[in-house]
Amino acid sequence: MTRTVNHNSGQIIYHLPKTYGTGYLKKNSVDRFTTIVTYDFSFHKSITMHAVTDKESIKFKFHLGEFPFQWGIGTKEARFVIAENESCIFPLGNMHYIGRYEAGQRYRGIDVILQPERYGPVVECFRANSMIRNLLTGQLVCKKYKMTARVKELLCHIINCPFVGAAADLYIEGKTLELISLYFNEIVLKNDKKDAKIRLSQKDIRGLQRVKKMLDECFEEPPTIAELSKLVYINEYKLKAGFRELYGTPIYRYVIDRRMEEAKKLFEERPMKVKEVASLVGYTNISHFIEMFRKKFGVSPSKLC
Predict the structure, then answer these.
(1) Which of 25, 187, 289, 303 shows its CA 20 to 30 Å from the CA of 193?
(2) Where in the chain is the domain with CATH 2.60.120.280?
(3) CB 92 within 8 A of CB 57
(4) Segment-wise mean pLDDT, segments of 10 residues, the chain, 305 residues
(5) Between 2.160.10.10, 1.10.10.10, 1.10.10.60, 3.40.50.720, what CATH number should domain 202-304 receive?
(6) CA proximity to 232, closest of 215, 209, 207, 212
(7) If we measure between CA atoms, which residue out of 6, 110, 30 comes closest to residue 65?
(8) What is the superkingdom listed in this entry's lineage (predicted)?
(9) For residue 74, what pLDDT is reported?
(10) What phi-psi label fits residue 211: left (phi over 0), alpha (psi between -120 and 50 degrees) or beta?
């Protein structure tokens, strides 16, 4: 990989050589105790990568890509699998990691690495978690968690930091602390009362997958909950609760996220007016569109025009 260093921010960017694939990995050392790694890349050919870590720390992995990421520890290749909108926590230190990447698939996400010198109480809390305890005792068990809508919003704010230099460091450090506390409270401790478990049959799951596909194809003017319920033969309560359970976000939030992602894509492709983009992604109220865009990416859409 080619390596670029931003001496003002301390950020290191690794670009994948064109002969191997496309994309990047950005490593941002907010301070000597906190490291944020964002990545978005794909390989032309399937590849297995090895890494050895010797410094004790805790890594939070948030997977945003559509294709599952596979990795193992020691000689156990592809022992763990993490899918879209899933996350996990595991320790680093005196371990040999093996990552498996499939050809043509996009891998996208964020890793947050915390050092015990600064985050001792936090690290100890996660050590007490059964998943961490099992890993440390040699039992290769990786517990995965679905990301909530609020956690995903914070990840987007970190990825799309609107500041540079020292201001960016302060912004990212603040968002990281907020992310970890929210993640521990909402997901690990399961204090988010809205995420009640619901039993889903294979038929229900197939129906919910159809719903997601329909929303992806017509998020500008999506069907109502009642219409979706009739189309996939799932009652409205199970449709809403099941979608949240399967994809980690309610239907209305998923539609908003899809609209915002498409809006950002349109702004990046060519110069367009805010009003024009808002209309294309399904908004008649421009103020509402601007509010949702700023909430999702932490920056006003006018900055991208």
Answers:
(1) 289
(2) 2-188
(3) yes
(4) 69 89 89 87 90 77 83 61 82 75 90 77 53 43 75 88 82 86 72 56 92 94 94 92 86 92 91 93 92 88 81
(5) 1.10.10.60
(6) 207
(7) 110
(8) Bacteria
(9) 61
(10) alpha
Quote the pLDDT of residue 187.
Answer: 66
Tokens 């990046």 locate to: 268
Identify the CA nearest to 73 among candidates 102, 94, 43. Answer: 94
Tokens read off for 251 = 């239907």
Q: For residue 100, give Cα distances in angstroms to 2, 19, 29.
A: 21, 18, 25
CA atoms within 13 A on the CB side of 99: 10
Spatial CB neighbours of 305, under 8 Å, sequence gap ≥ 6: 267, 271, 272, 273, 274
d(CA 305, CA 287): 16
Q: 2-188 in CATH: which number?
A: 2.60.120.280
